[in-house]
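Second attempt. The first submission of histidine kinase had a stray character pasted in from the spreadsheet, which I only caught after the job came back as garbage. Lesson logged: always re-copy from the clean sequence file. Corrected sequence (429 aa) follows.
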Amino acid sequence: MRRRLTLLVAATTCLVLLAFLVPLAVLLRGVARDRALVAATTEAQGVVAVVGTADRAALRLTVEQVTATGRSMTVYLPDGTVLGTPAARTPAVELAARAGRSLTVTGPDGNEIVVAVTGRPEGTAVIRTVVSRAELTRGVDRSWLVLGTLGVALLLVGLLVADRLAGSLTAPISELSAVSHRLARADLTARARPTGPPELREVAGALNHLAGRIQELLQDEREQLADLSHRLRTPLTSLRLEAESLADPAEAARVGAAVDGLERAVTGLIRQARWRRDPDADTACDAAAVVGERVAFWSVLAEDTGREVDLDLADGPLPVRVPADELAAVVDALLGNVFAHTPDGTAVAVTLRAGPAGGAVLVVADEGPGLPAERVRRGASSAGSTGLGLDIARRAARTSGGRLDLAAGAVRGLRVTLELGPPRTFTSP
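This time the job returned cleanly.
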């Protein structure tokens, strides 16, 4: 915008300068021409009285004095005598001698001024002087140079003023853009300074009001989520007590592990609700360790339901830009979908390999009835669930700089591919 405003002012200034300087340059050239012609005519008329009344010796002396100043002047007497600058009789001289009148003729070498003098007894004498092209344009080049310099100076001043003016307009706009980008990165403390024209100040105030309103709504949402999470602790405690009261130690351990996982998820929700995570923070974990631990947890349930779990785990560490609790929730959601939406005995394969540009690629494939990807959206599913499982995985992939792909299996079933981006820095635990 700043560049366009500067170009607009430059174009406008050039048009104004052309409209002003071109006529002025033409006028200066006309003035110089008229000045040269008037000066030559004045000198010729100054000799008229001498030509009409003086004798030949006095006339010769007067003409020689005029030509000594550099002026080209020739006097043609009626008897054919030529005094002054030698020159042949031109048609203009012949016309003046016959008609007895003065005239000015424009020729290729300049302007020819002819003055007829009728006072001599023997006939009409003619005074001829020539104004050359150099005399007609004397001083014009210098005047045009001054005008051109003045025009360039005015254009530079106009560009400087335009740049300052455009800067005063674009700086608040750039600041508004930067603040909006910070808000898009979840930096809700960003505020715009109300500077610039009234319209921009109004936009800055509206953006600040919007940011404040978003911050209030998110704070209310976090408080409600935290309150809901705290309310879940009471039934969790009851479940833990029920698990500890089971007679079978193995069953008690399995149920207790499930309660521990649920409590970790609730604790993570409370932490995320109470404290906003910095969007630029480089949180990371070892995908190999997290996936291996969660698959081992689900393998116990797989044995109870007659499922075969094929785990192909690449050698770690495989650092990804996802917190460990979020990645654990993603794996739980993907495997939970398999256990919830496929019949008992359906095999599932979990593959984790290094990504081509760092990070990791997690693939969860089953041989169940499959699920059309276009029928799944946040908060809705065709299988009677909440539809949030795949959304959790999709959000984690997007946050890390990766993506989530859903595709049909080789024969039947569903193949979920989760690409997770690498962290900026990673320290192996």
